[in-house]
Structures are given as structure tokens and as C-alpha cells.
Amino acid sequence: MTHYELIGSRGCGSAIVEAALRLSGLDARITDIPYLKPGPGRDRLLGLNPLGQVPVLILPGGAVMTESAAMILHLNEAAPHANLVPAAGGLPRARFFEMLVRLGAAVYPTFTYGDDPARWTGEGEAAQKLRAATDDRRELLWRSIEEQVGEPHVLGEQLTALDLYVAVMTHWRPRRAWFDEHCPRLAAAADQAAGHARVRDVLHRHFSGAGD
């Protein structure tokens, strides 16, 4: 295999990596599956990632990667011309790594536990409390990130993979109207990223008609 294959689902975090692949210009095939629905797609996914999560990136040669942040760092090395990560040696690169880890290690888990709280607590009041707590925690995290956002992009002048995260994740809870009101700099950065033709095409494919 001489190309990449990205396995994901529409509306999920695979959109972030898909946008990075589009910006990189690397040869890639996109495979959409209903990752929670039993069937051949999920069976294949579980064979590649026993956690059953998307995205999964299959590299040229067949090696398998999970975790979107790791994929972004790999794609930056494979296609440095795309400038997915700021150049080494400067403060923007340090800020990039800090925010990338915060998105993956702090914001993402609020969806892991909040999207289907009954999976972790069982049905009932405990699940409702977990959903509310993770929603509250996510809003607090976004407000803290808002304080560090530059303009016109997250880190200032350069569009980076952070902008791809923001462009996708502002479609998720608490939804775009909340960002417009409470995190306008993040909303503006999302709009700037969406103005890039290749990013816009990916967002349209994943979220057109989603009813934000």
C-alpha cells in the first residue's frame, strides 16, 4: 500500500485528521463506517483498534495509528510543507503542544464519559449527573482555552492543526451558538479555518445538514 487510509465516521474526530490529510496533499483514501453499529465495518475496526474508536489511520506499508494527536504529529513530519505544527524553536510550537495535549487529554474525555454516561454508571440519576458534570467541565475548559486564542487563527498568524480541531469541535456540544456567545475568539478562529477551501469541503461533508 502506497497511500494512507483514514477510517472514521462522519461528524466525529476523524474529520480533524481528514482535514489535515487534505492540507498535506498526501495520497489518502477515506473510509466511513458507522463505528458503533455491529457489522463488517465495526468488525474491521475492532481488529485494528480493540477500543473500537475512530479515527484509525493506516500508514503506507500497513502500520496502524490511533489517537488523532499522534496522527497530526506524524502527518506534520510526512508533509512539513502543510505547516500543521509551528516550526521548532519558538514559543508558538510550545503553545501548540500544550493546547494539543489539553484538547486530547482534557476536552476529549468529557465526550468519552458524557456522550453515553449510562455506559459508565448505569441508567438513572447517576448517568444524568455525569452528563451534566462533563458538560460543565467542558465549558470551563473551553473558557480557559479562549483566554489563549490569538487572531486570526488560534496561535495568531499561522493556521495550524489546532484550528482544525476548533473548526470541528465547535460543531459539538455545547454547539456553535454557545461559542459565539461565550468564546467568540474560538468561534472566529473556527470561521477562519472553515474559509480554507480544503477545510470547508471536509466540514461540509461531515456536518452539512447536521442541524447545529
Automatic annotation (TrEMBL):
PROSITE patterns: GST_NTER (PS50404). Residues 1-83 form the GST N-terminal domain. One of its GO terms (molecular function) is transferase activity. InterPro entries: Glutathione-S-Trfase_C_sf, Glutathione_S-Trfase_N, Thioredoxin-like_sf. CDD domains: GST_N_Beta. This is Glutathione S-transferase. The lineage of its organism: Bacteria, Pseudomonadati, Pseudomonadota, Betaproteobacteria, Burkholderiales.
